[in-house]
Structures are given as structure tokens and as C-alpha cells.
Amino acid sequence: MNRTVPRYYHVEVDPEPERVGQVQRIVAAHLRYWGLEKLATPATRGVGLLMEAAAGGGPVTIETWWTGQHLITAVSHQDATEAGQGSAPLACLRRIAALSDGWGSCTAHARHIVWFSLRSRNNVREPLAPKRPVPSTGAARQIPRTVPAPSDRDVPLMAGAVS
Question: I want to staple 58 with a disulfide (CB 3.0 to 4.6 A). Which of 7, 67, 78, 151 is the partner?
């Protein structure tokens, strides 16, 4: 499968402890299908941590986006805390920070959202600078490099010479 094409996957599940492994396998299967085998282990580990942290808070929504270089995974659940305080335990967030390249947390529409990003470490990346364009037909023509031979008329007369 083409790894540079953006992808998206979304699933909503109950965060029961016995379902965590099943959801991790489902997410890993999607990542392998997308050709992201190397990112499957850290991504599913992060999903498992966040599902365990959200246990008992209602359905959990898991979303994954592949941008061509980054895999972004977000886990959101109903926020049961007052005034939108973060509900994921600090130890869980520390582990997410350790296994990911970047992460964040917020509360929106009475849902607590934690996301993390993993960067692809392979050498198949888009170049930062565009390649030089191929010259068009007109630009590729060669300029004649022969110099015309001088004729007798082009030679200046010397002073004092008699003709």
C-alpha cells in the first residue's frame, strides 16, 4: 500500500479492561495494512495506556491519522472531572511522553482528549526542496560554437602600407 497517501481510522469502544488487548490488535492490524509495521507497537502501547486511564468513563473514541510522515493517535472519552481538569493519570501521561515524539491534552465539548504523534523513521520521505525542472526543448538546444573565419576585408590596413 502507498505509504505517502494520508489515511484515517476511527473506532468507538467501551474501555473495559478485557477489551484493551482486542482494540490494540485491531489498531495494529490497520497500521500493518497501511504499511506502518514499525509504528504499530508504540502506537498500540499508547492506545492501551490511554484506554486503561479512561476506564469507567463511558465510551472511548480512538482516531488515527497518517499524514505521510507522522502517525497521530487521539483517544477521547467523556470527562467526568469538574471544570475540565485532565482525567488521565500523570503516570500515564509521562509514559505517553516517553514513547512518542509529541503529545498533548485538552478538554473540548465535555470530552477529555489526549493525542500523541509518532514520526516515521524510514528513509522514504518527500524531498524538502523541489527537484530542478527538466529543460524544455527550446532551452535544450545547443548554441553553435564555431567562430566564422575572418575574411580579407575584416583585416584592418596597417598605417603606411601601400595597396
Answer: 78
